[in-house]
Design a protein that fits this description.
Pfam families: DUF87. Helices cover 43% and strands 14% of the residues. The protein is an alpha/beta fold.
């Protein structure tokens, strides 16, 4: 049965509709800055599809609880134990009841744990209960962050795993994910990549506009239109909506959110002496001590962390003068050994296209094989040292002021693009030809040349470098802060590094 959900009006005033059955099979991603109308869009979609499909809304702000009065959704207060939420989710799938999981009042880590338990219960339901469910997650960047934040690693892994199961493996279990986020850059890529339908709203940051345009198949000039979108207007694309980018104006809704945008109001007409009395007068009710609830117990320490602490622990020496049973670690020797291991990894033809996690495990194994003394580098330090090793700087250049300044400039970039920046900086400091798109793409771990070119544009927008082209079409990169520039290089040349040639062969 084909059911069309009316979103609003499209180009030329025609109705813009969503094929609900196709949406259940292909999932949806909504993106837009705060105030662009994401919640209004989700409310319209939920209201229009309520008679046709079971719904589950993960609501971090409590905005969608008003659906209960008009459409009969059951509001589930998330202030419960994780085991309770998991059992409730299983019964929801069994009895096909539409619900709103209200996470309001919980801190971010508690919200992540509650959402993970609830989505896990829906995902693990028995096969006989795999009925179609539209699972809407508002503010999805909270539950599937692209980078670690202030929450514990355990909470982040639980929440990210539940969101990944929803978007990657949920279709066969009848779960159709609809996720909304303020910024694509803050959303985990493996979660966003599983959506086939997109509704992109107003956004201002260049990195978000570029990623939105990339998902919709637009070029960079067309991406500028995302800045000009009005509230409630989106650009839609996907098999359930339209095969080409389609501007959509979202229609009205029947229910309203409990929280609305602030409106200007006149200030109260209060005399200054009365205002002072209102502020400084002590109300007896304020003197009453509020009831303080004990903080929740800390999460259990992961087994891996306990084992790491046991490995690092050493008994105290009997006396300060007692001779050590083990020889002192030569820091210079250890550093040279680590650099040798990193050089082996960089020389591997396939290393450029492996994930950082795989390379880090390879690094740990090689350190044990070479008997590198002392504790191994942690993941963050490994990423940094790998980026420097990929730049291929000799010892004379490494001690120079220009290269040290380039290293300081790279510290403000994310781990995944530091290696590309340092390769370009090395060419400028040494006066070598500017690296080609193929070389930069390999350093970034991708086969897409357009992504490599966008990285140079990103560096230029941040004021780190200037890209110019000579009369022969050769590319030159200038670093004003370093007082250095590269020699002309062909941007279309193949990857001429030894590992690049081996990978091509």
């Amino acid at each position: 049965m084909k059911v069309g959900i009316d979103l609003g009006t499209g180009a030329g005033g025609a109705s813009a509709s969503v094929d609900l059955e196709e949406l259940l099979a292909t999932r949806l991603l909504v993106q837009g800055n705060s105030g662009s109308g994401k919640s209004h869009l989700l409310r319209r979609l939920l209201e229009q599809s309520a008679p046709w499909v079971q719904q589950c809304v993960v609501d971090p702000e409590g905005d969608f609880v008003t659906l209960a009065d008009r459409f009969g959704h059951v509001v589930v207060d998330a202030a419960r134990t994780e085991a309770e939420l998991t059992r409730i989710a299983g019964r929801i799938r069994q009895h096909r009841v539409s619900v709103v999981l209200n996470l309001e009042g919980l801190d971010v880590e508690q919200q992540m744990r509650a959402a993970a338990a609830f989505l896990g219960g829906m995902f693990d339901a028995e096969r006989d209960h795999w009925y179609p469910v539209l699972v809407v997650v508002d503010e999805a960047q909270l539950f599937a962050p692209a980078a670690a934040g202030e929450v514990s690693d355990e909470a982040r892994k639980l929440s990210l795993g539940a969101m990944t199961n929803l978007m990657c493996r949920g279709r066969k279990r009848g779960l159709a994910g609809v996720i909304a986020t303020q910024r694509l850059a803050k959303l985990a890529k493996n979660v966003a990549a599983e959506a086939s339908n997109f509704l992109m709203g107003r956004t201002f940051l260049d990195i978000d506009m570029a990623r939105a345009a990339d998902l919709l198949g637009m070029d960079r000039r067309q991406a500028e239109q995302f800045r000009d979108l009005e509230r409630g207007r989106f650009v839609a694309l996907g098999p359930a909506i339209a095969r080409r980018p389609l501007p959509v104006a979202i229609g009205p809704v029947e229910t309203s959110a409990r929280s609305v945008s602030p409106k200007l109001m006149p200030l109260p007409d209060t005399a200054p002496e009365d205002a002072a009395e209102l502020i400084f007068k002590v109300d007896p009710a304020e003197l009453r001590q509020p009831v303080r609830r004990p903080p929740p117990p800390p999460p259990p320490t992961p087994t891996a962390e306990i084992l790491a602490q046991l490995v690092k622990s050493r008994p105290e020496p009997a006396s300060a003068d007692a001779a050590s049973l083990f020889p002192e670690i030569d820091e210079a020797e250890r550093k040279a050994a680590i650099e040798s291991v990193l050089a082996e990894i960089v020389a591997d033809p396939d290393a450029g296209f492996r994930s950082v996690a795989v390379l880090y495990q390879d690094f740990l194994v090689r350190c044990r094989i070479h008997r590198v003394p002392g504790a191994a580098l942690d993941l963050s330090a490994f990423k940094r040292q790998l980026a420097i090793a990929r730049a291929g700087v000799d010892k004379d250049m490494a001690t120079g002021d220009a290269w040290q300044e380039a290293l300081r400039m790279s510290e403000g970039l994310t781990d995944d693009i530091q290696g590309v920046f340092l390769i370009v900086a090395q060419a400028a400091v040494s006066g070598a030809p500017c690296p080609s798109d193929a070389t930069l793409a390999r350093a970034y771990g991708t086969h897409s040349l357009s992504r490599a070119r966008r990285l140079l544009t990103y560096f230029e927008e941040r004021g780190l470098l200037v890209v110019r082209t000579d009369f022969h079409g050769m590319r030159i990169v200038v670093f004003p802060d370093l007082g250095a520039e590269s020699a002309p290089g062909d941007p279309n040349a193949p990857d001429e590094t030894p590992e690049g040639r081996d990978a091509a062969e």
